[in-house]
Amino acid sequence: MKYSKKISILLFIVGCFSSAKAQNFKATDPIAVNQKIKKGVLPNGMTYYIYPTDVNKNTASYYIIQNVGSILENDQQKGLAHFLEHMAFNGTKHFEGKGILNTLQKQGAVFGKNINAYTSTDETVYNLDNIPSKDGSVVDTCLLVLHDWSNFLSLTNEEIDAERGVITEEWRTRQNARARIYNQLAPYYYNNSLYADRMPIGDMEIVKNFKYQVLKDFYKDWYRPDLQAIAIVGDINSDEIEAKIKKLFADIPTPQNPKQRFEIAIPEKEEPTFKLALDKEISASNISFMIRHTAEKPTGTFVDLEKSTEKSIAFSILNNRLAELAQKQECPFKSAQIGYQNYSRLNDIWILNVSPKPEKQAEAFAAVMNEWVRAYKFGFSKGEIERAVTETISGYENYLEKLNEISHKQVIEMVKDDYLDHEIIADPKVEFEMTKSILKSLDSKILQDQIAKLYTKQNRVITVTGVEGEENLSQEKAFDIIQKAENDASLQPYVDTFEGKTLLGNLKINSGKIVSEKKETAIDATTFVLSNGVKVHYKFADKNKKEVELKAESFGGTSLYEPQDLPSIGRATVLAMMSGVGELSNVDLEKVLKGKIANSSVSISSLKETVSGSANVKDIETMMQLVHLRFVQPRFDNQMYALLKQRLENSLKNRANDINAKMEDSLSAVVYGKNNPRVLPFNQKYIDDLSFDKMKSFYQDRFADVSNFEFYIVGDISPEVLKPLLEKYIASINGIKRKEKFKTNVPKWVSNKIDRDIFIKMETPKSSVRIAFLKDCAFTQKNRILASYLGDILTLRYTESLREKEGGTYGAGVKAGIDKLPISKVNIQINFDCDADKVEHLLPIVYQEIDKIKKGEIAAEDIEKTRTNYLKSREDSKNFNSYSMNLIYNYFENDYNMNDPKNYVDIVKSITAKDIQEFAVSVLDKADAMEVVFKPLK
């Protein structure tokens, strides 16, 4: 764990007020640094971090953090920081062309998943995630990649030209309504500073036409060791890695007379500013009120932690109030949040954000402003503070129990904050002692004072994302709402009405029994049969310490219901979850569960009904109580039913503006027809067909027979602890022992060959391609694996042809798999966006790559890359309890043992080009085929 002023991501600890014995700390006492991480600086100025952990056994992750982003570009370089990021994968001193990708893909890495990078305004970060770490030559290769990224990019003219199209297509893919709105608002967010004109994606005219030397100059100026940190996290020997770093990176020269790495402060502004932004494709409004502040430089001392803790608790309580309000039908906003966070290197912001209901912008803004003023004027109740204390204490205890399970990415986030923002990586146990000291004197007045000082008169910015045709919030009205809230003498303190409620309330439970136990030695699991007929499959797993996961399923689902009832059965569990459980509303349920790490949910799909749950071991009884209540005391609240309908109607309003919704609605109509009884369009009739009585009765029907459910429980819990809980909370549920199956009501395509162009009016013209193949296919382990091979090899081919060679798309996504139920079918989907003027050129290439595979023209290295990835991914998955859950589920539900090599490893190793070719021919010849291309309406 680390200290951080970033309120939104910090997990804070608070101790018991009555019993915690805390040390006394002075404001200037330093926060202890986490000694597990090794940090150093090379003579050339490069910083390094090394963190050993076996959370993912036999793997390590390698990062290079460049203190360089788009803010450093000049007017002729806009977009080149991001362009340079792309070029890092297109040739370096020791890896020509696509050498980095080709080399690491042979180790099972996947581009975009294990090998990636990002560029922001102030930093550029490259990553190699979860690469095998026990082969010294592979470790050396990864370090050499970081070395080359630091100072040895090739930047050949040919590769630069090839990448221009890829980045143009990335811009096109990302240039949606929200991006266009941001471009309108950025000058107001940043008060016309350089940040407003340095979006990382850049200027496409520059991207398409810049001279080669301009990019090379940017690289020479800014990619240098004094602005770079490398971080290696994983199953490694710290001393050995440190020695390698010192030797390998020593040849990177110290810069002579380097350019100054400047930082931009957003200019001060006395008067408030306002901006309303509109876009034809926006379907929902948003209001933001921010106040910029000069960022306080971290001191790494107790006082920093004190301020952050107090702000975190105050904003947490305030946002709980807003979430509670949002669960009322009369509330004018859908959601709202208020917080304080980093904004840029030199500025922080207080920010109020609200998503109004349609035609309720002014009311929504006023309601949230009132809650803000209520909080800083009157503070917080004792109960609210106590619940916040309980919740954060539990979170920290959970964190301390799992210090050895911190993911690579979590460590890297700490490293980035340390290197870029000088926020130390704290010793979590010592930080806990400091926090207990803070809590000794915590009260409402302290919380009030801490947040009230953030509400200053200067640097105020109100922005509105409006919707065409609505009454959008005006500047005059916004300023008036703020003034009235600030001066509302009628405002009263918050009243906390929650007292003394418990999860089970007055419910009486008559325990059942475990009537038999059977050991499943093949997978080291146990099956318990309960007195009510329930089967519970259990496996101990402690890869994730102190965690327990539960899943229960029965067949039936929405398939058993008539078309006119599909809306009600489809939303029945949504209503139940919104309503709470037992004697508790959802608001009260959340309060009862504060401080407990336990949850449970229910869902109904087309074929099944499912109950899920997870918990920390200390709270497993709470999870089991929740599961029990989902069966015996589900709750259905008429007010929540009205709120659900209101939410659906709100989402329906302005839906015609949402281009993605239009595409999905159009695609569904083309593929399944406009009147398919089992594929209902989301429209007013769908909402009108909802029935509270049906939703309640359908839920009760689906969960009426616990004996028809099969339970799976996996985690760090012994049989001795689990068995009494099963008898009390699962065996006690009545089982009527009916035997149900699903109905095979699979909606059919309108034709076995669909070929349509759909023209849609777009603000940013592009084509979106949707291709699919569907065919009956036996569900076997080999066929399932072959489908994956086919999809992943096609992804490699399209990356090379459509993206790299043609520069025609940012990326083509391919999904291929076999659905076992209700009818075993192979399903292959290919999706990508591109320039509308190029789509007819790119489409034949899609089919050419498929035809090559059908002819057996499959690159041996593509098969080997895919094979290695599958074997590595399988081994990596064994580091987590979720593997054990999949193991017992597949053993009992799908009748195969994942641990038996013949069911996976042997098949993956044995797959040949001929196997893939024959499979491709068998599933693609005479398959149902769909090609739908969305094109801009001119």
Automatic annotation (TrEMBL):
Signal peptide bounds: 1-22
InterPro entries: Metalloenz_LuxS/M16, MPP/UQCRC_Complex, Pept_M16_N, Pept_M16_Zn_BS, Peptidase_M16_C
Cofactor needs: Zn(2+)
Pfam families: Peptidase_M16 (PF00675), Peptidase_M16_C (PF05193)
Residue stretches making up the Peptidase M16 N-terminal domain: 54-175
PROSITE patterns: INSULINASE (PS00143)
Naturally occurring in which organism (per UniProt): Flavobacterium resistens
Native organism taxonomy: Bacteria, Pseudomonadati, Bacteroidota, Flavobacteriia, Flavobacteriales
Gene Ontology MF terms in the entry: metal ion binding; metalloendopeptidase activity
Family the UniProt entry places it in: Belongs to the peptidase M16 family.
Keywords: Hydrolase, Protease, Signal
BP GO annotations: proteolysis
Protein's recorded name: Insulinase family protein
Sequence ranges assigned to domain Peptidase M16 C-terminal in this UniProt record: 210-390, 690-869
